[in-house]
């Protein structure tokens, strides 16, 4: 019969010479000062670097900004929590009684941190190449099916590029109003694309967020009409 | 006679098998679409990871937050520009005529980016261990003389810890006023440490910056009197 830790090492594609490293990687800070936070710091940087190198090779013509956006989708908390699920990590997390009672082992951030810590532990146990092998195994499907770069850009950037491709002037953003106290403000922003006669307003918790929402609304309006510029 | 590129490779401790990689790493985006930005993306992540691993070993008892602060001082633009100076990189940068004319080769950010790109190129040329060796050689003095962690914390954190060590309540920050238009505002914040009878006001371009400045002023007041709490 295989133990749960054996099964984890199989799924990870790495068998630890020093099993204490794996235990440390699974130990949440709620247990005490001996926990996985230092390993998480290390694993985070390794994951970033290994995914960067892989994307660099997989997408030889992609500019740096697009590589960076692609990487962000692969290393963000939601994705790492999915990886934790595939590794069936949550049942193996070692937590203090408080966190256990409040269901901390189900928290996305705790699972994501543990994945990074496990990768840090693989690096300490067997070096960069072993860590790289584990990352490529865990991310094989995602690296084989990368999202379209265009879909990753924020609405303001997409709107700007949409207009530039058509030789049209840039949109104009204006603050219509802001309401509420300084620590809890709501901003209303208006985005105007005069050449297509489109004006949309949107709200947001910051001016920047409101601008992004307004740009998204304008994009949807432009794409639904797919019209020609007003002459 | 050694060429400038030979001298650079000596200072770097790495001789390129593929010299085109080094040329690419020195080519600023002002030259055209074939430039060093992708290599910079790669090198940045390698530098972060190699420094992280080194600090992990050098400071076995430091919590993750402190490791992260230490790393930030080593990989920030100012430090990398110093490294570029030690490598005498600026004379070797390949730039477009516009950037050349405006003295771009002297710009700190361009030099820092080129250092990262060169490290990315070493990785592609010879792998992780060669890149690590170059990083450790370039950062040997800095890694051997790391700053005190306490000095790296921001003033609000330092003030909070100073009060906690003395069992005193946390400081209170209040927004006194804000002036100017929404994109160019000045905030005035007041920081009060009632238990020591200290109140300081400070200005800043954001509420957060004003709070940090006010905390710094309070810290200086507290440390200059090194007094006991008001009872």
Q: What's this, in brief?
A:
The structure is a homodimer of 231-residue chains. With 231 residues, the first copy, chain A, is mainly α.
Explain what the structure shows.
Two copies of one chain form a homodimer. Chain A is elongated. In chain A, helix 3 (37-58) packs across helix 7, helix 5 packs across helix 7 (108-126) and helix 7 (108-126) packs antiparallel against helix 8. In chain A, a hairpin with a 4-residue loop joins strand 2 and strand 3. Chain A has helices at 4-12, 19-25, 37-58, 64-75, 77-87, 97-101, 108-126, 128-138, 140-144, 155-165, 207-225; strands at residues 172-179, 186-193, 198-204. The longest helix of chain A has 22 residues, at 37-58. Chain A has 231 residues and is mainly alpha-helical. The N and C termini of chain A lie far apart (75 Å). The first copy, chain A, is 57% helix and 10% strand. At the A-B interface, helix 3 and helix 4 of A face helix 3 and helix 4 of B.
Keywords:
homodimer; 231 residues; mainly alpha; Ribonuclease iii, N-terminal Endonuclease Domain, Chain A; Double Stranded RNA Binding Domain; 2 domains; three-stranded antiparallel beta sheet
Poorly predicted runs of chain A: none
Largest sheet of chain A at a glance? 3 strands, antiparallel
How many domains of chain A? Answer: 2
Order of the strands making up the biggest sheet of chain A: 1-2-3
Task: Output the number of helix runs of chain A.
Answer: 11
Q: What is the terminal separation of chain A in angstroms?
A: 75 Å
